[in-house]
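Data deposition worksheet. Section B asks for the primary sequence of the deposited chain exactly as it was used as input, without tags or linkers unless they were present during the calculation. Section C holds the resulting structure in token form. Section D is free text for depositor observations; keep each observation to a single sentence. Incomplete worksheets are returned to the depositor.
Section A, Depositor: J.P.
Section B:
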Amino acid sequence: MKVFPVALVIENRRVLVVGGGVVAARKVAALLEAGALVTVVSPELSPDFPTPVELRARRFQAGDCEGFFLVFAATNSREVNAQVADDARKHHVLLNDASAPNESDFHTQAIVRRGPVAVGVSTGGLSPVVSAQLKRSVEDALGLEWEELFALVEEIGEPETSRRGEFWRAVLKSEALELLRDGKHGEAKRAVELARR
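Section C:
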């Protein structure tokens, strides 16, 4: 299956997750991290289910998908997930069906976040295990120093838009990342300040 990778802005968007188990919990955690307004339909939730969510403590009903930006069918029942899929399509809402990747409108990605940078890894729903392994490789390659760099730039302040490209080229040519990797925060800050001049 060919997919078209995109980075969706779901902050303050209504997202429905049907299911209360471990798979649903993982989806909800990622959605909350991205700022979505999550509604969960499930008679019960697994221990340590992420919050805050709007909980509809009952079984899925026809019409539940109406008005949502995205829908996740994440129950342990293929039959219920198929009902969710039918309802999502009826209401023209994009669907992710955990039990039927080939029937889904989109697939979630294994995500590595470093400040404003988000790198997603997807196998098109074929193998979450492979996605997880590739995610670990990306995490190793994209160290925490990147997050620290963006925090430094936010602290110092980016230049006006017309100079932004020149500024970032100077930052990346400097030793700022290496200094952050070595724990030399003060020296890294000076390197970023120098790049901003």
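Section D:
The domain at 109-142 is CATH 3.30.160 (Double Stranded RNA Binding Domain).
The mean pLDDT is 94.
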